[in-house]
């Protein structure tokens, strides 16, 4: 089938979510979906569970070690060849029309390289959808202060984001990508930057793709549920290593993709975020600042990657100003 979709559920020690996420993948209305499970170095028996529960319905891919979100998605890309690639987190549960509706966006507009639906918040893997659900994400926004956030998060689903639109990028929990865009965006043999490992790798990819002239789409006709395990309000419960990655990757992403003159243009919003954030970290989470030696060590590699990206960019700095949301 020329418009077939590789739907890859990625999991690392997330066995509790797999029955629901994989069953949702298998129940897609679109006929050209092949469901894969990538076991990303799990030690909780996830691979055996999938093999016993789903048999040949789900194609099992395995990595003996945890490659992170970036490496895991790259591994799955290398092991599949369908022209469209949907990377689904283990804690994301797709509605039956999700693939059909997001794929329809991409097929109608060849300039769109990525799409997502209206993803709603769920509190527990076994929970039924609440009667008045809240939005988890309708796409990514990039703010003038260089923060990224999930569009519409926390708003009631009813009455908000009811029309098709074009966000800055797509969230990492259930994005559908055009494989030709991913090939176009690859640098040093990687689509997702494996130096980032986890956190913001999908934002980094979206920014790179936008610089290359690709666009993102959103449709409310595609719905899914996401049991979010990270939010700013819960970040202090994360292990220190993960908080350092989350902090470090913001600067790696900016270094690779941003324009210095545009940062100067937006220095007011940037400083209004950076200075209080630094004060907070010094007072409450000083261990996070130990990410700086590693960050500085990665600067030469990031600059090489930056050179490769910006040598091929199709969006001028003036045009790229439109990528930012004011607030």
Concise summary:
By secondary structure, the protein is of the alpha/beta class.
**H-E order:** EHEHEHEEHEEEEEHHEHHHHHE
CATH class of the largest domain: Alpha Beta
Question: How many distinct folded domains?
Answer: 2
Kindly name the structural category: alpha/beta
Q: Mean pLDDT, as a whole number?
A: 96
Terminus-to-terminus distance: 43 Å
CATH architecture of the largest domain: Alpha-Beta Complex
Tell me how many strands there are: 12
What amount of the residues lies in strands?
A: 15-25%
Which spans of ≥5 residues are poorly predicted at pLDDT below 50? none
* Oligomeric state of the chains in view: single chain
The CATH H-level homologous superfamily of the largest domain: Spore Coat Polysaccharide Biosynthesis Protein SpsA, Chain A
The radius of gyration over CA amounts to 19 Å
Cα shape: globular
Question: Fraction of residues in helices?
Answer: 25-40%
Describe the protein in words.
With 327 residues, the protein is an alpha/beta fold. The chain has two domains: 5-232, Spore Coat Polysaccharide Biosynthesis Protein SpsA, Chain A (Alpha-Beta Complex); 233-325, no CATH class. The chain is 39% helix and 20% strand. The strands form two sheets. Strands 1, 2, 3, 4, 5, 6, 7, 10 and 11 form a nine-stranded mixed sheet that branches. It has a three-stranded mixed sheet with strand order 9-8-12, with no helix packed on it. Helix 6 runs parallel beside helix 7 (240-257) and helix 7 (240-257) packs parallel to helix 10. The longest helix has 21 residues, at 292-312. It is globular, with a radius of gyration of 19 Å. The chain starts with a strand and ends with a strand. The mean pLDDT is 96.
